[in-house]
Amino acid sequence: MSLAVLAGGIMIAFGALAAGIGNGVLFSSYLSGIARQPEAQGTLFGQSMIALGLVEALPVISIAFGILVLFGIIG
């Protein structure tokens, strides 16, 4: 097994892991904010969706680079 295949797999796996952890922390904070102040649900929802987009950018980028490494375009 070449190192490029290993590197590509690690990039894809850690990107997915980081997205899962980030989403868990984000929505845990969102739900705790709603529990503390229910009238701010609309504001918190909009802000959490913006943060979700930022959190989800990491796995998309890591999957893209992982695929590039797997198919030998980079490296």
Overview of the structural elements:
With 75 residues, this protein is mainly α. The chain has a single domain, classed as Up-down Bundle (F1FO ATP Synthase). The protein is 85% helix and 0% strand. The protein is built from 2 helices and no strands. The two termini are 15 Å apart. The model has no long low-confidence stretch (mean pLDDT 89).
Number of distinct helices = 2
Topology pattern, helix = H, strand = E: HH
Count all strands and give the number. Answer: 0
Q: Determine the CATH superfamily.
A: F1F0 ATP synthase subunit C
- Which CATH architecture would you pick? Up-down Bundle
Helix-and-strand structural type:
mainly alpha
Gap from first CA to last CA: 15 Å
Residue share in β-strands = under 5%
Overall shape: it is elongated
Structurally, the number of domains stands at 1
Mean pLDDT score: 89
Low-confidence parts lasting 5 or more residues at pLDDT below 50?
none
User: What is the CA-based Rg, rounded?
Assistant: 17 Å
For the largest beta-sheet, the strand count, sense and barrel status come to: none
Q: What is the name of the CATH class?
A: Mainly Alpha
Helical residue percent band = over 70%
CATH topology: F1FO ATP Synthase
GO molecular function, one term: proton-transporting ATP synthase activity, rotational mechanism
Organism: Sporolactobacillus nakayamae
Subcellular location: Cell membrane; Membrane
Family: Belongs to the ATPase C chain family.
